[in-house]
Amino acid sequence: MLRGIRSVAPRAFARTAVITVKDEEHFDELLKNNPKVVVDFSAQWCGPCKMVGPAFNKLSDEITGVTFLNVDIDNVEELGMRYAVSSIPYFLTMQNGNQVSSVVGANIDNKGGVRDAVEALEKL
Q1: Is 69 a catalytic residue?
Q2: Catalytic-role residue among 19, 21, 39, 49
Q3: With the CA atoms of 100, 44, 70 and 18 taken in that order, what torsion angle do they form, in degrees rounded to the nearest 10?
Q4: Residue numbers of the chain with a pLDDT score lower than 70
Q5: Residue 11: Cβ within 10 Å count
Q6: DSSP letter (8 states) at residue 22
Q7: How far apart are CA 118 and CA 36, in angstroms?
Q8: How far apart are CA 27 and CA 111, in angstroms?
Q9: pLDDT of the residue at 50
């Protein structure tokens, strides 16, 4: 090794398994092609959504067999209306396009939170 030159391993970049939904058609295609889905309805301006986002991303890396989606209700308003989202963050678990459960608020790891709902979905 040359003096003054260090070997540096390439840095691994964190990967997130959360898919950002572009529009209603994209969402419908994702539902059609993925039997188990959890949807995070959020918005850029929402403080609690920003706080829970990293935990949702981490959960998506930990849970297999479930597709994780994020819908910005300001960009895809139709989906917010379709699922009557009145408060965010709002999470839906779905199987074969049908709603299984919902969680309102920034509750990822507490009892009855998103993790519990996703783990129940995973077992179906």
Answers
A1: no
A2: 49
A3: -130
A4: 1-16
A5: 5
A6: -
A7: 9
A8: 28
A9: 95
pLDDT digits (tens, 9 = 90+) for 49-85: 999 999 999 999 999 899 999 999 999 999 999 999 9
Measured distance CA(111)–CA(60) in Å, rounded: 18
**Catalytic option among 19, 38, 39, 46:** 46
Which residues are 68's β-sheet partners? 18, 38
> What contacts 33, CB < 8 A, 6 or more positions away?
none
CA distance 93 to 10: 37
Q: Is 79 a catalytic residue?
A: no
CA distance 16 to 56: 10
Residue type, 92: L
